[in-house]
Design brief:
Elements (H helix, E strand, L loop, with lengths): L5 E2 L5 E2 L22 E4 L4 E4 L2 E2 H7 L2 H10 L5 H13 L5 H9 L6 H15 L8 H26 L13 H10 L5 H14 L6 H11 L4 H12 L7 H12 L5 H10 L18 H17 L1 H18 L16 H7 L7 H22 L26
Antiparallel strand pairs: 1-2, 3-4, 4-5
Helix pairs in contact: 2-16, 3-6, 5-6, 5-10, 6-7, 6-16, 7-8, 8-15, 8-16, 9-10, 9-16, 10-16, 13-14, 13-15
Bound molecules: coenzyme A (COA).
The site of coenzyme A has 18 residues, from loops.
């Protein structure tokens, strides 16, 4: 790798030969120091604030993990109860936001609906002019609490179902499923969603977290930063991959068709395998291992379509992991198996990117809060390769 020897007279970082160093896609570039998340991409380990993802998945709950990520330490019981109560108090959506939800065309992608309503909430937040640390924390709790309500109401409005008020006796995951389906979830369904929210809560400097932090670094407002994060998440190279992975399984159709589909589409290099590959992991994503096990259990317990999805996914994964993809470090990522778990919760695929956002708003918040404590506007360069000093020709003389 080229060694940086410092900025030249244009401000470009140059290597020993004086050539500007261009890291396309900011690959391997550190934009700051952080204490939130560590991804060990070569051995497939992930830590939130120093804790292994496997331990959080086994012992924690979404609310506790959210507290850990935002405040930097595991809460005491009292701190967790206060935090959870605070979230419960903020779940209701104001009538004006419900009216906006009803105005949006019903065929709008749910993640775009979420982006729009989050943006609207920023205009009516009682702390919208408060730029203090405490004000930012209040806004964050309000938004983390309201996102599940926005998603559930989007689903219910487009299906002409009555809106279900949040139930303060239920935790974050239970209450979401209750508002979405209109009935209390089984404890196993609620636990599966809670687990998924932990696994999706944070992932270092991914595109959406970076987008959010770039916006926050201009000293813009919290809601604008989150709207930017949601916008970045919506692309299928990032969060929308969960939806596209399910589309891919649908396109394959049956386990018998997997090998032909893989050989013709992926091995020929005509297309990418969705749910595979990662900028940082060059081995199996540890979150995908947990989702794989959860999907296996769901398939065993439920049968039907869930089993069919599982069998297609399993066969496709086996073939991909035995192929030349792994020579390039392309392995299963988090979005490969998670859709099957969400499907088993009775949630339609179009909503899976919103579930990702429902969890990841925590990580975005943690990064925004950390970065602006010691802010520096994020303003990288392009290495200019075009011409300069060109002669301006008036429009009528251009031929
Ligand atoms: C996640 C992703 C965008 C990372 O991209 P990246 O770090 O920029 O990697 P690159 O696009 O530079 O890919 C490097 C090489 O691997 C190949 N590659 C990467 N992901 C691939 C995939 N899923 N299927 C097939 N080939 C893939 C590229 O074609 C490229 O090959 P080349 O060197 O022969 O040109 C990429 O792996 C991808 O598109 N995955 C599919 C979408 C997905 O699952 N997204 C969710 C991510 S959590």
């Amino acid at each position: 790798m080229a060694r940086k020897v410092g900025p030249d007279e244009q401000g470009w970082c140059v290597d020993v030969s004086g050539e500007p160093i261009v890291n396309k896609g900011l690959r391997n570039v550190c934009v700051d120091e952080s204490k939130i998340c560590f991804i060990d991409g070569s051995s497939g380990r992930l830590f939130y604030r120093g804790y292994r993802i496997e331990d959080l998945a086994k012992y924690s709950c979404f609310e506790e993990t959210a507290y850990l990520l935002i405040y930097g330490k595991l809460p005491t019981r009292e701190e967790l109860n206060n935090f959870s109560d605070h979230l419960k108090e903020e779940r209701e959506l104001p009538d004006s936001a419900i009216r906006i939800l009803k105005l949006i065309q019903k065929d709008t992608n749910p993640i775009e609906v979420l982006r729009t309503v989050v943006s609207f909430l920023g205009t009516i937040d009682p702390d919208k002019h408060d730029r203090s640390r405490e004000g930012r924390h209040r806004k964050a709790i309000r938004l983390i609490a309201k996102i599940p309500t926005i998603i559930a109401y989007t689903y219910r409005i487009r299906n002409e179902l009555e809106l279900i008020s949040p139930d303060p006796t239920l935790n974050h995951a239970e209450n979401f499923l209750y508002m979405f389906h209109g009935e209390k979830p089984s404890s196993s369904s609620a636990k599966e969603l809670d687990l998924a929210l932990i696994l999706y809560a944070e992932h270092e400097n991914n595109a959406s977290a970076f987008a959010a932090v770039v916006i926050a670094s201009t000293l813009s407002d919290y809601y604008s930063a989150i709207v930017g994060g949601i916008g970045a998440l919506r692309g299928f190279l990032h969060g929308y991959a969960i939806v596209e992975a399910m589309n891919q399984f649908d396109e394959i159709g049956t386990p018998d068709n997997v090998e032909k589909w893989f050989n013709e589409g992926i091995l020929t290099g005509r297309r990418r395998l969705i749910g595979f590959g990662h900028r940082v992991y060059k081995t199996y994503d540890p979150r995908a291992k947990i989702f794989r096990e959860c999907a296996r259990k769901c398939a065993k317990e439920n049968g039907g379509n869930i089993r069919k999805y599982y069998e297609i996914a399993k066969k496709l994964e086996d073939i991909a992991l035995a192929s030349k993809l792994t020579e390039k470090g392309i392995y299963t990522n988090v979005d490969y198996w998670s859709g099957i778990v969400f499907y088993s919760l009775g949630i339609p695929p179009a909503f899976y990117c919103t579930l990702f956002a429902m969890a990841r708003v925590v990580g975005w918040t943690a990064h925004i809060l950390e970065y602006i404590e010691n802010n520096k506007i994020i303003r990288p360069r392009y290495y200019y390769k075009g011409e300069i000093e060109k002669k301006y020709i008036p429009i009528d003389e251009r031929g």
